[in-house]
Amino acid sequence: MKAKLSIKPLILIISLICTSGALADISIGVSVSATGSAAVLGGPQKNTAELLPTSIGGEKINWIILDEASDPTAAVTNVSKLINEYKVDLIIGGSTTPSVLAAAGGAAESKTPLIALAPNSADGERLKWTFTVPQPFSLMAEGILEHMKANNMKTLGLIGYSDGYGETWIKALEAVIGKYGVTLGPIERFQRTDTSVTGQIVKLIAAKPDAILVVASGAPAAMPHISLAERGYKGQIYQTHGAPSPAFLKIGGKSVEGGILVAGPLIEWSQLPDSHPSKKACAEYSKLYEAKFGAGSLSSFGGHVWDAWEIASRAIPIAKMKAKPGTVEFRAALRDAIEGEKEVVGVHGVFNMSPTNHYGHDRRARVLLRVNNGAFKLVSI
After folding, report:
1. pLDDT of residue 228 exceeding 50
2. Same domain, yes or no: 156 and 77
3. Is the pLDDT of residue 6 over 80?
4. How far is 249 from 243, CA to CA, in rounded Å?
């Protein structure tokens, strides 16, 4: 299937396959932000979905890919369509935290497993049916705080999205920051669609924190960083794992030099030691992705779809031994199989799910990168 196809033809072609398939075919729905402000996340995710197998164990897989257009309301609509029209067995999606949180309710209500592509704070019944492939905020927050402690930094300012992504990061920091001897504040917020954060940056610089964390994703994460540099801030600037991408480097230019980003192993996989468990998986994914979409096109965000498939491909054969695809029983068995998976090696770490941990990550899922001469350089693992 050619990458230049637009979303609508892609949906039409795959849905025709779905309509004509046998009842036992496995149907997987993908809802990502292929367009809109979060397209830097969702574009590589859509591209990765097009690389995935169309069969497993001799059973056909029907892929239905929908565009949520960076809109949580559209994510809810997509999930409803995937469940009610396409009768999917599994949903992979939610390019942003608000989209995941919006979609998780429908997935739980229909008892359809959801593998989320953005960190989130799903709880209760939503958590039971939601598994998340990006690293949890707490794991990544501690990577930043460890670096601060090692470099004798005591105060951390923050500017972040005024939505679920930003607020969940704040909570994660507040839960662990005390043991590192770091004080959090001041905290400033901005909208994903804002074109300026000058007012917030002036307030942050006036407080003179040792370091400032930008809590944003994709290309918009560069804006506060650029503003800090333009206003002469000399402290360390950190970014979350929502930021690392070619677009961040291109837009940020010289202003983001020296910035430190906490990230998954994928974005600079060639710099990993050969002993890192994800290096082989990263090499395989990188080769496939760049062969189709061009050298230098690799993005960490597409890797989350790749990892979602690694998890699903382990769970589907187990679930099939218990029930037939297309049934409530199969979806329940699939959920249980995902929850029981151990040592699944992905491009963003090694997954060990459990009833109390639907992320499954450990320290192997985290690296620190520094922007050096317009490129990401590995600082530590």
Report:
1. yes
2. no
3. no
4. 9
Report the Cα 240 to chain-centroid distance in Å: 11
Tokens of 255: 């202003």
Q: Taking a C-beta distance cutoff of 8 angstroms, is the pair 182, 155 a contact?
A: yes
Dump pLDDT digits (tens) for 293-303. Answer: 999 899 999 99
Write phi, then psi, for 265 (nearest 5 degrees): -70, -20
Question: Can you give the pTM of this predicted structure?
Answer: 0.87
pLDDT of residue 70: 95
Query: Range of 89's domain?
Result: 7-135+282-362
Q: Decide if 290 is inside a domain.
A: yes
**Do both 17 and 113 map to the same domain?**
yes
Q: How far apart are CA 121 and CA 133, in angstroms?
A: 13
Q: What are the structure tokens assigned to 173, written together?
A: 């920091």
Domain count, the chain: 2
Residue 9: the pLDDT is 41
* Same-domain pairing of 141 and 51: no
Domain check: are 338 and 224 in the same one? Answer: no
Residue carrying the six token digits 């043991």: 179
CATH number (domain holding residue 125):
3.40.50.2300
Asked whether residue 5 carries a pLDDT value surpassing 60, the answer given is no
Q: What are phi and psi of 315, to 5 degrees?
A: -85, -35
